[in-house]
Specification:
- The chain is of the alpha/beta class.
- The protein has a domain of 250 residues: Rossmann fold.
- Helices cover 37% and strands 8% of the residues.
- It has 12 helices and 6 strands.
- Strands 1-2-3-4 form a 4-stranded parallel beta sheet, sandwiched between helices. A two-stranded parallel ribbon has the order 5-6.
- Helix 5 packs across helix 6 and helix 8 packs parallel to helix 10.
- The radius of gyration is 19 Å and the shape is globular.
């Protein structure tokens, strides 16, 4: 299935950068409620990974779209197996791959749109995520990518294919013992709210974060109705400290845009509380809130502690604005000589090494 979406009219401070309004991740602020939500039990084994959401997890689902929010071209994938650009928004692997590897499921998580999928691939899960998507349906319309509602439809098709291959009973077992990994909220806050200001017309930050939690709740309930029982939910990242945000709203010194981070922390607090509530409302479910915000913020602010030298700009181009189609082999300065020195690959997405440093702090949160 191919999905094409029409752009909404953009206005606000980012109008000049409409070509840049691309993808994103997940991660977010800490609180006592957030920490409580991560202490849920996770005793059963994980047979498969099912990934939903945005570019932190997308392993190539945007490749077939007519959209600027894609990266199936060099220098993306420069440090991937064979130096191949696969549609992953990084120089190498992304979070969904690293989770699958760390949990012993498989080395790479293929995208739903991979044309070479075999039954063995289906049995260990797929990636349905789409860079540029979010809990808010407006985000996918702005970026012309795959909304969560269509990711759900893809998952339904996946279940049908799996059932034909391994039977109904085995399919039920695989789904119940899959980790449903989700990353969303980044594009919603960074672009739909602050970037285009389209949501600011009707919502202030508190009411918009309430809206996002409502969208998220419906999404998780839909997955639950389809058999999902184990949820790992990445919170929203420290958006204000991304190179892109520093360039747009960080002032002359390119400091962190605090308004963005405050909005993220408000949303993350509400998301954590709601996941705790959902875990009690949905029988036999495990809802694990995974704090990505604080570990990533620490990597950014104390980069030398993790072996990185540069955290205020990305490796690609000038490192200040380039991402997706603007991060290409013709970008000014092309890409840095040594990716290992950089926290960020482009102006929005961490490098593979930074993702590895991050995931090493995320995986333990799945367990009590």
């Amino acid at each position: 299935m191919e999905h094409y979406y029409f752009y909404s009219s953009f206005f606000g401070r980012f109008t000049t950068f409409v070509v840049l309004l691309v993808v994103l991740h997940g991660g977010g602020g800490g609180s006592s409620t957030a920490k409580a939500a991560t202490k849920l039990q996770w005793n059963e084994s994980v047979l498969a990974i099912q990934a939903f959401g945005d570019s932190f997890l997308d392993t190539g689902n945007n490749n077939h779209l007519i959209s600027i929010t894609k990266c199936d071209f060099p220098p993306y994938g420069r440090d991937f197996i064979g130096g191949k650009p696969t549609g992953r928004f990084s120089n190498g692997k992304v979070i969904s791959d690293l989770f699958a590897e760390a949990l012993g499921v498989k080395g790479l998580l293929p995208s739903y749109h991979d044309k070479d999928l075999k039954i063995k691939d289906l049995q260990t899960g797929l990636c349905f995520a789409s860079g540029g998507s979010g809990y808010d349906p407006l985000s996918s319309k702005i970026n012309r990518v795959i909304p969560l509602s269509d990711q759900i439809e893809f998952f339904k098709d996946y279940k049908r294919r799996l059932k034909r291959g391994v039977g109904e009973e085995r399919t039920k077992s695989i789904i119940e013992n899959s980790l449903f990994l989700t990353s969303a909220g980044n594009n919603d806050i960074l672009f739909s709210y602050f970037g285009t200001k389209l949501r600011q017309i009707n919502y202030d930050v508190p009411s918009y974060t309430d809206l996002l939690v409502n969208f998220a709740s419906h999404f998780f309930r839909d997955l639950y109705d389809l058999g999902a029982r184990k949820f790992g939910v990445l919170n929203t990242s420290p958006l204000g400290c991304l190179p892109f945000s520093r360039t747009i709203d960080g002032g002359i010194a390119r400091g962190c845009a605090n308004d963005y981070n405050e909005a993220v922390k408000m949303f993350n607090h509400k998301l954590s509380s709601h996941l705790t509530s959902l875990s009690h409302q949905l029988p036999h479910s495990t809802m694990v809130y995974i704090d990505l915000y604080n570990p990533l913020l620490d990597i950014i602010l104390q980069s030398t502690k993790y072996g990185f030298e540069i955290s205020k700009k990305g490796c690609c181009g000038s490192g200040a604005l380039e991402t997706a189609i603007l991060c290409n082999k013709f970008s000014i300065g092309s890409s840095c000589a040594n990716t290992s020195e950089y926290v960020f690959w482009d102006s929005l997405h961490p490098s593979e090494l930074a993702y590895k440093a991050l995931v090493s702090q995320l995986i333990p949160q799945l367990y009590n």
